[in-house]
C-alpha cells in the first residue's frame, strides 16, 4: 500500500480564498458565492414551492450554460492567472469565467422576463429596482473574480459576454419555440403528478394568487358555518 501522501483536491463549490485582513476581499468572497445561493436557494426552493414552467426552464438554461462553459474551458485550456497557486485553483482552466457567465445569463434572462411581464412584477418602478439589483450583483461578481485572483479581466469579460448571449438565446427559445407546448406539459402525466404550471399569461400573478387564496378561505368559512 502506498503510504506517500498525495495531493488532495478540494470541492470548490464554496471554497473561496481572500487575503487575511482584507475586508473588501472578504466581502467579495461572499459575493462570488451568489451563483451558489441562487442555484441552491433560489431554484431548488422555486421548484419545491412554485413549480412554474418559466422558472424551471430558466434553471435548465443555467445548467446548459454551465455545460457550455465547461466544454469551452476544456477545449481552449487557457490557464488562470499566476495567483492560482496561492488559491489552489491551478487544476482548472480560466477562460471563460463560469461565475461571470452564470450571473450575466441570470441577469439577462431575468431582465427579459421583466420586459415581457413574466413573474411577480409590481409596476415599472419595482421592475427598475429588480433590474438594478441583479445587474449590480452580476457586475460585482465579475469584479470579485479578478480582485480575488481567480481570473484575468479578459476571462471575466468572455464569461459575461457568453452568459448574455446564451441567456438571450435561451429566453427566445423558451418563449418562442417551447412556450406553445406549455399546456401539453401541464396536462401530461408527469406534469400533473409534479403539479407543474404556467402562470406567465396572468398579468399580475401575486394579486391573482392573493385574491384566489382569500376567496378560497371565505368559501371554506362559509362551508363551516352552514
From TrEMBL:
The record's listing under SUPFAM superfamilies reads: Acid phosphatase/Vanadium-dependent haloperoxidase (SSF48317)
What are the transmembrane regions?
27-49, 102-122, 153-173
Cite the Pfam families for this sequence: PAP2 (PF01569)
Ranges of residues in domain Phosphatidic acid phosphatase type 2/haloperoxidase: 55-171
| Sorted UniProt keywords | Hydrolase, Membrane, Transmembrane, Transmembrane helix
Topology relative to the lipid bilayer, per the entry, is: Multi-pass membrane protein
Q: Where in the cell is it found?
A: Membrane
Name of the protein in question:
Lipid phosphate phosphatase gamma, chloroplastic-like
Please state the gene responsible for encoding this protein. Answer: LOC104768475
